[in-house]
Amino acid sequence: MKQHTIAGQFSSYDRPSISSSDDSQVTFINFFKTNKKLLEHGIGKALKDLISLGIFPSEIGVDLLILAAHVFAADTRISRKTESQDTWTREIQLIVPVSDPDRWSSATNILVQMLNFLTGDRWMLSFRPRPRGFNRIVPTKPKRGITPPFDGIALFSGGLDSLIGAIDSLESGQNPLFASHAGEGVVSLCQDTCFNMLKRNYPNIPINRLRVWMNFLTGLVQGIDSESTTRGRSFLFFAIGVFAGTGIEKGFTLRVPENGLIALNVPLDPMRLGALSTRTMHPYYLSRWNELLKKIGINGMVENPYWKATKGEMIMNCANIPLLQQLIQYSLSCSSPTKGRWHGHSIEHCGYCLPCLVRRAALVKAFGVDGDPTNYTLSDLNSRTLDTDQSEGRQVRSLQFTIERLKSNPNLAKLLIHKPGPLSALPDENMAALADVFQRGMDEVATLLAQVRT
Fold first, then answer.
1. Which of 8, 18, 125, 342 has the fewest C-beta atoms lying within 10 Å of its C-beta?
2. What is the mean pLDDT of residues 368-394?
């Protein structure tokens, strides 16, 4: 096991003095190449795209996206298998060049809390001034510039929940700037298809989107394999949205659409504790984001408008169901849509991972057993007994395990919602609503799995 340090720099001459040893390793990430005259890793392109829309983000907004790049690089390019004592918990230090080190240093404790919670690692952060010549990155906004038409920011992932969120916003007369991370081909294709069809169906609304292309090459950290779990990716998603929001000249809301069952992501059996359950939309994590924004002086907030709804309820309450039914087949819910290629299948939903099962259950609830147009690798869950020693049966059995526990003790929902993370700061009525949405979400899945054998 090694402690890893990821340090950003703006040129080969901008290199802080960092000591390394046999049990620590330092990796530098260059954020600026003179010949390109743009910030690297998609940040400069994102800034240019925003300015073309009349949005001039703040320097703190740029800092946040640079910090997110450090997090994303560390999370995806440091193997848990070889770089931790327990095959999960890594020790990661980030040294980030920012416009206002004092402001960012005051938020260190919040950032450490949220990152530790999100990824299950031990994070350490420090901030240093940007080098001379980079005090200001964002151009000054012209006095008679474009007035952006956007009234907020909404994450657009290409998933079914974000698609419903987009339709609901547009149907209600809102016009958020949509924000996406583009780093993998099949996800980007789904995002493009859904977004272009939304534009086609709402020709009178000036719909637009910020796409940040960010990925780091395998081998970024010398001699270390990459990591596939990507628990920290939502920090980048949120940072992209907030980065754009800082250019809206008023307080903004970043909408992050996610159904309540997946947002809670309660561990389904004793083997899925801690960081083995994702926490990307958990109420505690969202609360830390709002605390962070306040601390660093950003006039915005993060909100999940669907935290009290199951996925099935989101579908049934969508403001334009006929349009949603046209677009469902283009949305992507699967956690690993490329894994079927090993067996000669095309890129498609596997049909048996947790997000696929929740999607299938929701569509059965909304439209019946024949109302799901999605192409699943495992098309019929009832065709055979599913092997729980294989990936096709593991999540099904975990869900069945929890369904049976809830049947025998319905009050258990009130306890299980506390397993993924702290909820103590929430009011009592929120606790009751979270337990209720968890129970209703599991009821949807129970209907799907009623005849499935494992």
1. 342
2. 94
DSSP one-letter code for 136: -
For the stretch 271-320, pLDDT in tens is: 544 334 578 999 999 999 999 999 999 999 999 999 999 999 999 999 99
| Token digits of residue 413 | 């929902």
Where are the strands (E) in 183-329, listed by range?
209-213, 252-255, 300-303
- CB–CB of 376/348 below 8 Å? yes
State how far the Cα of 418 lies from the Cα of 431, in Å rounded to an integer: 9
Q: What is the DSSP string of 330-376?
A: G----S-TTGGGGGT--S-B-S-SHHHHHHHHHHHHHH-TT-----B
The helix or strand, by DSSP H or E, that contains position 3, with its residue range, turns out to be: strand 3-9
d(CA 394, CA 272): 11
pLDDT tens digits for range 178-203: 999 976 667 788 999 999 999 999 99
Distance separating alpha carbons of residues 50 and 56, to the nearest angstrom: 7
Q: Please give the model's pTM, rounded to 2 decimal places.
A: 0.94
**Sheet arrangement for strand 153-155:** 209-213, 177-182, 153-155, 252-255, 300-303
Two tokens, residue 301: 């907030």
Which amino acid is present at 280?
A: T
Backbone angles phi, psi at 346, to 5 degrees: -80, 175
Domain coordinates in residue numbering, the chain: 3-137+147-156+209-301, 345-454
